[in-house]
Write a structure and sequence with these properties.
- It is a single chain.
- It is built from nine helices and eleven strands.
- It is of the alpha/beta class.
- The protein has three domains: about 80 residues, Orthogonal Bundle (Arc Repressor Mutant, subunit A), CATH 1.10.10.10; about 110 residues, 3-Layer(aba) Sandwich (D-Maltodextrin-Binding Protein, domain 2); about 100 residues, 3-Layer(aba) Sandwich (D-Maltodextrin-Binding Protein, domain 2), CATH 3.40.190.
- The strands form three sheets. Strands 3, 4, 5, 6, 9, 10 and 11 form a seven-stranded mixed sheet that branches.
- β3, α5 and β4 form a beta-alpha-beta unit.
- The longest helix is centred in the N-terminal third of the chain and has 23 residues.
- The radius of gyration is 23 Å and the shape is globular.
- It starts with a helix and ends with a helix.
Length: about 300
């Protein structure tokens, strides 16, 4: 019979690649991890691991077992959590989210839960989507809000994912400049060929690829001149004539007359938001309660 705790170690090894990293994450010693995985190989009756320099990689049999183990462990976790808390959920729920949706979409959910589910404590962690995915896999988060773009979908089949909504994008330009002339129309991308572009410095390759794709539709490559860790500061630079920027709707400063928002058209120029959770974790009543609230408040702020 295969023991569940050994399956968990194998899954951890699949994500972390070294015995030392698994030991650090689980509290075992490195030798204990190695021993437990050796026992698992004997229980499975086949070779599950092979050395690759300093790392250890899974054999095809090991990968198949990890694929099954994810489902088995998720089912066990769901069954265990369903037995806890009932109609009065109590517990700490760690939520990771990117910045622009925190204030309009996540904070209202936390505020509502304070009255509706006082036993649930929500702890917020600001993080970019790629950071959220890592923190979910490492069990440092219970729920994660992430996004992708129509031109570059982000797939993570090992996480339960639900679509929260979609928002449009706009090119932000200095008001009063020729770039803001309404005679150009929304589809005239060529007006931006000679200006510099400003990006969020925390943005991943997805955001840069989106800008390059957008400009490429008009036959030119963008000149990326500034990378700034704040959408507010990005738009401040635009207001001072330092370039233009592609900004999602929730990140726009609508009360600043110094900048103009020019809609970027096309399905590829949309940002999709998702709620993610590890398989099985979503059945724990506190997590389910927070998720249900986010499924209401985030679409409301996108409406």
């Amino acid at each position: 019979m295969v023991e569940l705790h050994r399956l968990r170690l194998l899954v951890e090894l699949c994500h972390r690649h070294t015995m030392a990293a698994v030991a650090a994450a689980t509290g075992y010693s490195t030798s204990a991890v190695s021993h437990q995985l050796a026992v698992l190989e004997r229980e499975a009756g086949t070779t599950l691991l092979e050395r690759d320099g300093r790392r250890v990689r899974l054999t095809p049999a090991g990968q198949r077992l990890v694929d099954r183990a994810d489902l088995i462990l998720a089912a066990v976790e769901a069954a265990r959590l369903e037995l806890r808390d009932g109609d009065n959920p109590v517990g700490v729920v760690r939520v990771g989210s990117f910045q622009s949706v925190l204030l309009p979409g996540v904070v209202p959910a936390v505020h509502r839960l304070a009255d509706a589910a006082p036993g649930v404590e929500v702890q917020l962690h600001e993080a970019e989507p790629h950071e959220v995915a890592i923190m979910l896999h490492e069990d440092r988060l219970d729920l994660g809000l992430v996004f992708d773009y129509g031109v570059r979908p982000r797939y993570q089949p090992d996480l339960d994912t639900r679509l929260l909504g979609t928002e449009t994008m706009s090119v932000v330009v200095p008001s009063g400049s020729p770039l803001a002339d309404p005679m150009h129309g929304t589809a005239d991308i060529r007006r931006f060929a000679e200006v510099g572009w400003i990006m969020d410095s925390r943005a991943s390759e997805h955001e840069e690829e989106l800008i390059r794709w957008y400009c490429g539709q008009a036959g030119f490559q963008p000149r990326l001149v500034h990378r700034i860790d704040s959408l507010r500061l990005v738009q401040e630079l635009v207001a001072h004539g330092q370039g233009v920027a592609l900004i999602p709707r929730l990140g726009l400063r609508r009360d600043d007359p110094r900048i103009t928002h020019i809609p970027a058209t096309g399905d590829a120029l949309t940002r999709r938001m998702f709620l993610q959770v590890r398989p099985g974790r979503g059945q724990w009543p506190p997590v389910r309660r927070v998720a249900d609230e986010l499924l209401l408040t985030v679409p409301e702020c996108l409406a």
